[in-house]
Amino acid sequence: MAEVSLHRFLKSTRRFSVREAERLIREGHVTVDGGVVDRPEVRVEGSRAVVTVDGQIVAPAVQADEAPAVWLYHKPAGLVCTRSDEHGRRTIYDALPAELGYVFSVGRLDLMSEGALLLTSDGDLSRRLADPRFHVAKVYRVKLRGNVTHVVLEKLAAGVALDGVRTRPCRIEIDQRVEGSTWTRWTLTEGKNRQIRRMAETAGLAVQRLLRVELAGLALGRLAPGELRRLDPAEVRSLLASSEGGADGPR
Q1: Catalytic positions, written as ranges
Q2: Alpha carbon distances (Å) from 15 to 11, 62, 89, 156, 231
Protein backbone atom coordinates (compact mmCIF):
# COMPACT_ATOMS: atom_id res chain seq x y z
CA MET A 1 0.00 0.00 0.00
CA ALA A 2 1.48 3.38 -1.03
CA GLU A 3 1.75 6.38 1.24
CA VAL A 4 -1.62 7.90 2.13
CA SER A 5 -2.86 10.45 4.63
CA LEU A 6 -3.57 8.97 8.04
CA HIS A 7 -7.32 9.64 7.93
CA ARG A 8 -7.54 7.94 4.51
CA PHE A 9 -5.60 4.98 5.89
CA LEU A 10 -8.15 4.65 8.71
CA LYS A 11 -11.01 4.83 6.21
CA SER A 12 -9.38 2.02 4.20
CA THR A 13 -9.89 -0.29 7.17
CA ARG A 14 -13.66 0.04 6.53
CA ARG A 15 -14.12 0.70 10.24
CA PHE A 16 -14.41 4.47 10.15
CA SER A 17 -15.84 7.20 7.99
CA VAL A 18 -13.48 10.05 7.05
CA ARG A 19 -15.17 12.28 9.64
CA GLU A 20 -14.80 9.64 12.37
CA ALA A 21 -11.17 9.09 11.44
CA GLU A 22 -10.37 12.80 11.60
CA ARG A 23 -12.03 13.12 15.01
CA LEU A 24 -10.17 10.13 16.45
CA ILE A 25 -6.85 11.46 15.19
CA ARG A 26 -7.37 15.00 16.52
CA GLU A 27 -8.50 13.67 19.90
CA GLY A 28 -5.29 11.65 20.31
CA HIS A 29 -6.71 8.13 19.92
CA VAL A 30 -4.34 7.16 17.08
CA THR A 31 -0.67 6.18 17.15
CA VAL A 32 1.73 5.47 14.29
CA ASP A 33 4.74 3.29 15.10
CA GLY A 34 4.18 3.92 18.80
CA GLY A 35 3.78 7.70 18.74
CA VAL A 36 0.53 9.66 18.99
CA VAL A 37 -0.31 11.52 15.78
CA ASP A 38 -2.96 14.24 16.00
CA ARG A 39 -2.88 15.58 12.43
CA PRO A 40 -5.11 13.75 9.88
CA GLU A 41 -2.97 14.85 6.92
CA VAL A 42 0.19 13.10 8.15
CA ARG A 43 1.19 10.52 5.55
CA VAL A 44 1.88 6.88 6.41
CA GLU A 45 3.13 3.93 4.41
CA GLY A 46 0.28 1.52 4.89
CA SER A 47 2.25 -1.65 4.20
CA ARG A 48 4.83 -0.89 6.90
CA ALA A 49 3.38 1.49 9.48
CA VAL A 50 1.92 0.06 12.69
CA VAL A 51 -1.25 2.06 13.31
CA THR A 52 -3.37 1.69 16.43
CA VAL A 53 -6.69 3.15 17.55
CA ASP A 54 -7.21 3.13 21.32
CA GLY A 55 -4.34 0.64 21.58
CA GLN A 56 -5.73 -1.81 19.00
CA ILE A 57 -3.79 -2.38 15.77
CA VAL A 58 -5.82 -1.62 12.63
CA ALA A 59 -5.07 -2.60 9.05
CA PRO A 60 -6.60 -2.12 5.59
CA ALA A 61 -9.75 -4.14 4.99
CA VAL A 62 -9.72 -7.62 3.54
CA GLN A 63 -10.29 -8.10 -0.17
CA ALA A 64 -13.83 -7.61 -1.39
CA ASP A 65 -14.35 -11.35 -1.98
CA GLU A 66 -13.48 -12.19 1.64
CA ALA A 67 -16.24 -12.19 4.23
CA PRO A 68 -15.85 -9.67 7.07
CA ALA A 69 -15.35 -11.06 10.55
CA VAL A 70 -18.58 -11.22 12.57
CA TRP A 71 -19.12 -12.71 16.02
CA LEU A 72 -22.20 -13.59 18.03
CA TYR A 73 -21.61 -12.48 21.61
CA HIS A 74 -23.56 -13.29 24.78
CA LYS A 75 -23.57 -9.91 26.50
CA PRO A 76 -23.75 -10.27 30.28
CA ALA A 77 -25.90 -7.97 32.40
CA GLY A 78 -24.02 -5.07 33.99
CA LEU A 79 -22.05 -3.94 30.93
CA VAL A 80 -22.77 -0.98 28.65
CA CYS A 81 -22.22 -1.10 24.88
CA THR A 82 -20.50 2.27 24.45
CA ARG A 83 -16.77 2.49 23.73
CA SER A 84 -16.29 4.45 26.97
CA ASP A 85 -18.77 5.47 29.66
CA GLU A 86 -18.98 8.91 31.24
CA HIS A 87 -20.17 7.33 34.50
CA GLY A 88 -17.22 4.95 34.67
CA ARG A 89 -19.30 1.82 34.18
CA ARG A 90 -17.66 -1.27 32.69
CA THR A 91 -18.20 -1.72 28.95
CA ILE A 92 -18.37 -4.77 26.70
CA TYR A 93 -15.04 -3.64 25.23
CA ASP A 94 -13.44 -3.96 28.67
CA ALA A 95 -14.67 -7.56 28.83
CA LEU A 96 -13.86 -8.74 25.28
CA PRO A 97 -10.61 -10.68 24.70
CA ALA A 98 -7.76 -8.44 23.50
CA GLU A 99 -6.98 -10.72 20.55
CA LEU A 100 -10.37 -9.84 19.04
CA GLY A 101 -8.92 -6.49 18.00
CA TYR A 102 -10.95 -3.35 17.24
CA VAL A 103 -14.60 -4.33 16.79
CA PHE A 104 -17.97 -2.60 16.68
CA SER A 105 -21.24 -3.70 18.23
CA VAL A 106 -24.24 -3.80 15.92
CA GLY A 107 -26.76 -1.80 17.91
CA ARG A 108 -26.89 -2.10 21.68
CA LEU A 109 -28.39 -3.82 24.66
CA ASP A 110 -28.93 -1.65 27.73
CA LEU A 111 -27.01 -2.03 30.99
CA MET A 112 -29.10 -4.78 32.60
CA SER A 113 -30.20 -6.55 29.41
CA GLU A 114 -28.44 -9.75 28.40
CA GLY A 115 -28.05 -11.99 25.41
CA ALA A 116 -27.34 -11.98 21.69
CA LEU A 117 -25.28 -9.11 20.32
CA LEU A 118 -23.40 -8.99 17.02
CA LEU A 119 -19.82 -7.73 16.82
CA THR A 120 -17.89 -7.04 13.62
CA SER A 121 -14.49 -5.76 12.54
CA ASP A 122 -16.14 -4.05 9.55
CA GLY A 123 -17.41 -0.55 10.37
CA ASP A 124 -19.31 -0.25 7.09
CA LEU A 125 -21.20 -3.47 7.82
CA SER A 126 -21.91 -2.31 11.37
CA ARG A 127 -23.44 0.92 10.04
CA ARG A 128 -25.52 -0.93 7.44
CA LEU A 129 -26.89 -3.32 10.02
CA ALA A 130 -27.72 -0.37 12.28
CA ASP A 131 -29.86 1.32 9.63
CA PRO A 132 -33.48 1.43 10.90
CA ARG A 133 -34.84 0.49 7.47
CA PHE A 134 -33.77 -3.11 8.03
CA HIS A 135 -36.48 -4.69 10.18
CA VAL A 136 -34.53 -7.62 11.56
CA ALA A 137 -36.43 -9.99 13.85
CA LYS A 138 -35.22 -10.07 17.45
CA VAL A 139 -36.53 -12.58 19.99
CA TYR A 140 -36.42 -11.99 23.76
CA ARG A 141 -37.32 -13.93 26.88
CA VAL A 142 -38.69 -11.42 29.37
CA LYS A 143 -39.54 -12.09 33.01
CA LEU A 144 -42.33 -9.81 34.23
CA ARG A 145 -43.35 -9.32 37.83
CA GLY A 146 -46.78 -10.70 38.71
CA ASN A 147 -49.36 -12.92 37.06
CA VAL A 148 -49.63 -11.16 33.71
CA THR A 149 -52.75 -11.82 31.65
CA HIS A 150 -53.04 -12.59 27.93
CA VAL A 151 -55.32 -9.57 27.53
CA VAL A 152 -52.65 -7.16 28.75
CA LEU A 153 -50.01 -8.72 26.50
CA GLU A 154 -52.30 -8.61 23.47
CA LYS A 155 -52.80 -4.88 23.97
CA LEU A 156 -49.05 -4.34 24.17
CA ALA A 157 -48.46 -6.49 21.09
CA ALA A 158 -50.89 -4.38 19.07
CA GLY A 159 -48.65 -1.34 19.61
CA VAL A 160 -48.28 1.48 22.12
CA ALA A 161 -47.19 5.11 21.85
CA LEU A 162 -43.54 5.81 22.75
CA ASP A 163 -42.31 9.38 22.29
CA GLY A 164 -45.43 10.11 20.26
CA VAL A 165 -44.82 7.27 17.77
CA ARG A 166 -46.73 4.00 17.85
CA THR A 167 -44.65 0.85 18.03
CA ARG A 168 -45.04 -1.74 15.29
CA PRO A 169 -47.23 -4.73 16.08
CA CYS A 170 -45.18 -7.54 17.59
CA ARG A 171 -45.72 -11.02 19.01
CA ILE A 172 -45.82 -11.60 22.77
CA GLU A 173 -46.50 -15.05 24.22
CA ILE A 174 -46.52 -16.51 27.71
CA ASP A 175 -43.80 -19.13 28.18
CA GLN A 176 -44.38 -20.14 31.77
CA ARG A 177 -45.56 -18.88 35.11
CA VAL A 178 -43.35 -19.11 38.18
CA GLU A 179 -44.11 -17.99 41.68
CA GLY A 180 -44.89 -14.28 41.51
CA SER A 181 -43.65 -13.83 37.92
CA THR A 182 -44.48 -14.55 34.29
CA TRP A 183 -41.91 -15.52 31.67
CA THR A 184 -42.87 -14.17 28.25
CA ARG A 185 -41.43 -14.38 24.74
CA TRP A 186 -41.36 -11.24 22.59
CA THR A 187 -40.61 -11.08 18.85
CA LEU A 188 -39.90 -7.54 17.60
CA THR A 189 -38.89 -6.13 14.21
CA GLU A 190 -37.81 -2.70 15.39
CA GLY A 191 -35.32 -1.41 17.92
CA LYS A 192 -36.39 1.69 19.81
CA ASN A 193 -34.28 2.60 22.83
CA ARG A 194 -35.20 0.36 25.81
CA GLN A 195 -38.32 -0.57 23.88
CA ILE A 196 -39.50 -3.61 25.82
CA ARG A 197 -38.97 -2.02 29.22
CA ARG A 198 -40.80 1.13 28.14
CA MET A 199 -43.66 -0.83 26.55
CA ALA A 200 -44.06 -2.82 29.75
CA GLU A 201 -44.13 0.39 31.80
CA THR A 202 -47.12 1.68 29.80
CA ALA A 203 -49.10 -1.28 31.20
CA GLY A 204 -47.74 -0.89 34.73
CA LEU A 205 -45.51 -3.95 34.37
CA ALA A 206 -42.00 -4.33 35.77
CA VAL A 207 -39.28 -6.22 33.87
CA GLN A 208 -37.27 -8.46 36.20
CA ARG A 209 -35.01 -9.98 33.55
CA LEU A 210 -34.54 -9.42 29.82
CA LEU A 211 -32.60 -11.87 27.67
CA ARG A 212 -32.29 -11.63 23.87
CA VAL A 213 -32.20 -15.23 22.62
CA GLU A 214 -32.20 -14.69 18.86
CA LEU A 215 -31.06 -11.97 16.48
CA ALA A 216 -31.38 -11.97 12.67
CA GLY A 217 -32.04 -15.71 12.74
CA LEU A 218 -28.95 -16.38 14.88
CA ALA A 219 -29.85 -18.21 18.08
CA LEU A 220 -27.89 -17.63 21.28
CA GLY A 221 -27.92 -21.37 21.86
CA ARG A 222 -25.49 -22.64 24.48
CA LEU A 223 -23.29 -19.54 24.55
CA ALA A 224 -22.68 -18.66 28.19
CA PRO A 225 -22.56 -15.03 29.38
CA GLY A 226 -19.33 -13.47 28.15
CA GLU A 227 -18.72 -16.12 25.47
CA LEU A 228 -18.68 -15.48 21.74
CA ARG A 229 -18.39 -17.47 18.54
CA ARG A 230 -17.33 -16.39 15.08
CA LEU A 231 -19.99 -16.79 12.42
CA ASP A 232 -19.18 -19.21 9.64
CA PRO A 233 -19.03 -17.95 6.02
CA ALA A 234 -22.57 -19.10 5.20
CA GLU A 235 -23.96 -17.21 8.21
CA VAL A 236 -22.05 -14.07 7.22
CA ARG A 237 -23.29 -14.30 3.61
CA SER A 238 -26.86 -14.60 4.87
CA LEU A 239 -26.36 -11.59 7.13
CA LEU A 240 -24.87 -9.55 4.27
CA ALA A 241 -27.76 -10.46 1.99
CA SER A 242 -30.29 -9.38 4.61
CA SER A 243 -28.47 -6.08 5.12
CA GLU A 244 -28.70 -4.95 1.51
CA GLY A 245 -31.84 -2.99 2.30
CA GLY A 246 -30.47 -1.45 5.50
CA ALA A 247 -30.63 -2.65 9.10
CA ASP A 248 -32.45 -2.15 12.34
CA GLY A 249 -30.17 -1.57 15.27
CA PRO A 250 -31.10 -4.13 17.92
CA ARG A 251 -31.87 -3.09 21.48
Answers
A1: 110
A2: 7, 12, 25, 38, 19
